Amino acid sequence: MIPRIPHDEVTLPDGGSMPRLGMGTWYLGEGRRPPEDEIAALRTGLDAGVRLIDTAEMYADGGAERLIGRAIAGYDRASLFLVSKVYPHNAGRARLRRSLEASLRRMGVDYLDMYLLHWRGSIPLAETVECMEAAVDAGLIRQWGVSNLDMTDMRELMRVANGSHCCVDQVLYHLGSRGIEVDLLPWLRKRRILVMAYCPLAQAGRLRDGLLDSAVVREVAAAHGFTPMQVLLAFVLHRPDVVAIPRSGNPRHVLENVAVLSDPLTDDEYAALDRAFPAPDHPVPLDME
Ligand SMILES: NC(=O)c1ccc[n+]([C@@H]2O[C@H](COP(=O)([O-])OP(=O)(O)OC[C@H]3O[C@@H](n4cnc5c(N)ncnc54)[C@H](OP(=O)(O)O)[C@@H]3O)[C@@H](O)[C@H]2O)c1
């Protein structure tokens, strides 16, 4: 059993809920660290109450899903919230079911809590939605969503049959990349579709110069006994309807990330970060990694 973290859930469009903090797995299972260390990091998160793990068939070419399978062995499946993603070229009648079943096999489970279209490809959205709905009906997934879809894509998705059943749009969002706040985020909120923020730590600060050594970030960090990285996560989690999925193969970092949930930023701290790294004042193309 996995303990509950207080205030850790967010409501889904169908009235169900999902955890606000998860663990990403891009670059895990690639041999950058011994697999035992990465498994230990994931288990540290699970033992600390993080129930959500985000992955994709793409990550380490299935290796991240296999690693997750090893990490979750022995945990109560019902207490977990597993999310994977299908490659765009597999997201149609010919291959979605096969991709999904392969993901399930690699993780050693018989359903996913959520399955996402990884990014938009050439298969029509209507066909992907039809396949996602069929997978729900077959009991292989509980919910489905999308990733890297911008406003235009989302509007189109809402026009296809059952497109409004989409639960989340997983997009890049961090203190140094706030374009979604201008249009996509409020548009999704109106429809109660959740944002899953990927790269919430700006890939350890690599995606934007000046984040980690910013005086404001450092001041806020000092006030909480946080590292600058924890401030980046706290910024994303300040919005109650955004899910964040930081990735770490280091148990100490995982625990630091968990600690952020129980020590939120004050509104003044949020305002100071907002001034230091403002959102754009006009729509910008969706940032992607
Ligand atoms: N849908 C998509 O297209 C898409 C694209 C990108 C990512 N994603 C998902 O989002 C997840 C997160 O994004 P990401 O992995 O690209 O980047 P990220 O989570 O922003 O940053 C990961 C980096 O931060 C470090 N880190 C984590 N916690 C830390 C802490 N407390 N202190 C210091 N360093 C820390 C990690 O190193 P250590 O391992 O050393 O801790 C790693 O280098 C991915 O793993 C993936 O699941 C989805």
From TrEMBL:
What CDD domains does this protein map onto? AKR_YeaE (cd19138)
Q: Where does substrate bind?
A: H118
Name the record gives this protein: Aldo/keto reductase
The UniProt GO MF terms for this protein read:
oxidoreductase activity
Could you name the active-site residues? Y59
Residues annotated as site: Lowers pKa of active site Tyr: K85
Recorded hits in Gene3D superfamilies, A to Z, give: NADP-dependent oxidoreductase domain
Domain NADP-dependent oxidoreductase residue range list: 20-275
